[in-house]
Design a protein that fits this description.
This protein is of the alpha/beta class. About 40% of the residues lie in helices and about 20% in strands. The protein is built from ten helices and twelve strands. The strands form two sheets. The protein has an eight-stranded mixed beta sheet, sandwiched between helices. A four-stranded mixed beta sheet has the order 5-4-7-8. The longest helix is centred in the first third of the chain and has 24 residues, at about 75-95. The structure holds adenosine-5'-triphosphate and magnesium ion. Adenosine-5'-triphosphate binds near residues 180 and 181.
Length: about 270
């Protein structure tokens, strides 16, 4: 049994799907990432992936995040959850094909939220999986909510909670841009990359960060940063890298320097 503190890796839905085309998975990218994860061979790894064009459009269409207002939304809740299991299956196929002992943990079966925030989380199975050197894989999901009926739990909120719960050593966020910029790099060509930010610097720049230019019910880059604050406040450093570029995830997992943004690691 490894005693290393876990690493939490988020693989953005923006990486493994084409967010501009509903239900378009990037299977070549999924396979490349599985290769990089296999090669890096990090002990005590937890993976969380986002929804991309599988999760977000249907959730938006049925207003799932805002909760149950009308029974006609129920099929939307079921579809959103189901589509996430389909995307999860594609990643699981690739990881297992690469001989990685990855085990999918369904967030909506172990988590209930209250007004969108995680209220209860049955983490025993994930702890046991880690103890046994399995690689737990979770994802942003449509979950039940004690006040709203149901809602959307972002992969980003899940990342921070898992990192805090399991005393993670670090968080690596793979997304489709080179890191955190002073404006959205997809719409502002002169946007400048932050290579390193302390937690205080991050809090100061928060209001200037943008949302997502494509369909994203969980708030794009701004939502991501807000969600990561609890883990950052617990001293878990976050590295944001562009996971659409080959080798970045491998290098980040190996602790090598990659173009990107490091938040909160005072050693940098
Ligand atoms: N200040 C900023 N710095 C970097 N990216 C930004 C900024 N403001 C907005 N963005 C946008 O945020 C997007 C990343 O967030 P998004 O939620 O779309 O991806 P993701 O979290 O990887 O995907 P998913 O939510 O499906 O997991 C980038 O593609 C970028 O266009
Ligand atoms: Mg997102």
């Amino acid at each position: 049994m490894s005693k290393a503190r876990p690493t939490v890796l988020k693989i953005g839905g923006s990486v493994i799907t084409d967010k501009s085309v509903e239900l378009k998975a990037r299977t070549d990218t999924i396979d490349r990432l599985a290769t990089e994860i296999e090669k890096a061979n990090v002990h005590n790894l937890i993976i969380v992936h986002g929804g991309g064009s599988f999760g977000h459009p249907r959730a938006q269409q049925y207003g799932i995040k805002g909760g149950l207002k009308d029974d006609s939304q129920k099929i939307g809740f079921a579809e959103t959850h189901h589509l996430m299991t389909v995307l999860n299956g594609l990643l699981m196929d690739a990881l297992i094909w690469h001989a990685i002992p990855a085990v999918s943990v369904t967030p909506s079966s172990v988590i209930v939220t209250k007004n969108g925030r995680i209220q209860s989380f049955d983490h025993a199975s994930i702890g046991k999986l880690l103890d046994m050197s399995f690689l737990p894989v979770l994802y942003g999901d449509a979950v039940l909510d004690s006040e709203l009926g149901f809602t959307i739990l972002s992969g980003d909120q899940l990342v921070a909670m898992l990192a805090t719960q399991f005393g993670a050593e670090r968080i690596i966020m793979g997304t489709d841009v080179d890191g955190l910029h002073d404006a959205d790099p997809k719409t502002e060509k002169t946007a400048k990359l932050f290579e390193h930010l302390t937690l205080n610097e991050l809090k100061g720049s928060q209001s200037r960060l943008g949302k997502s230019t494509v369909c994203d019910v969980t708030g794009g880059m701004f939502g991501k940063i807000v969600e990561l604050l609890p883990a950052l406040e617990k001293g878990v450093p976050v590295t944001i890298v562009n996971a659409t570029k080959p080798n970045n995830v491998y290098m980040a997992l190996k602790g090598e320097r990659v173009k990107g943004t490091v938040v909160g690691d005072e050693r940098c």
